[in-house]
Amino acid sequence: MVLPDCIERQSENVLYRGEKMSSKSGSRKSWHEKLQSPPEGLPKVVEVPAGWERRMGGRKVLVPTPLLVDGQIRKVKKGKLVTVNQIRKKLANDFKADSTCPMTTGIFLRIISEAAEEDRQNGTKRIAPYWRVVKNDGSLNPKFPGGVEAQATHLKEEGHKIVPGRGKKPPKVKDFEKALV
Hints:
The protein is an alpha/beta fold. The chain contains 6 helices and 10 strands.
């Protein structure tokens, strides 16, 4: 897979602006700094090769910024949910693109969630409610801070019921479709 200019892949480590995305020591920037300083040249709409249209959801693909994704998450009210695809579709529509890059959106969701937890630890009251973002089938995201357990706790506090996952599948929000924005 060819990666956008803003992302490089070296073995199994995904790099964001040349820095390993990890909450472990060694990262030069905080998650909040990564949220605030997007890769140069973003957002942008790129044309993908013809063979990628099906995989990417069209020919014109938006590569967003973390703050664009953050803005969509902050619009989700308490008790409501949004799927990753809903975020991607809204951003694509805003930029008159066919779709939004799924890889950068996923990376930026991780940055947003980690930055929100940094902000919470620093005493900020209004943080991005990243826990309201569920996968397209209503399942929870194991890559969010604290894993699915922490996301489930946040969602239960907002009145959602969580159904345990089966096998290796993560838990899901029961009847999540009824709570979508």
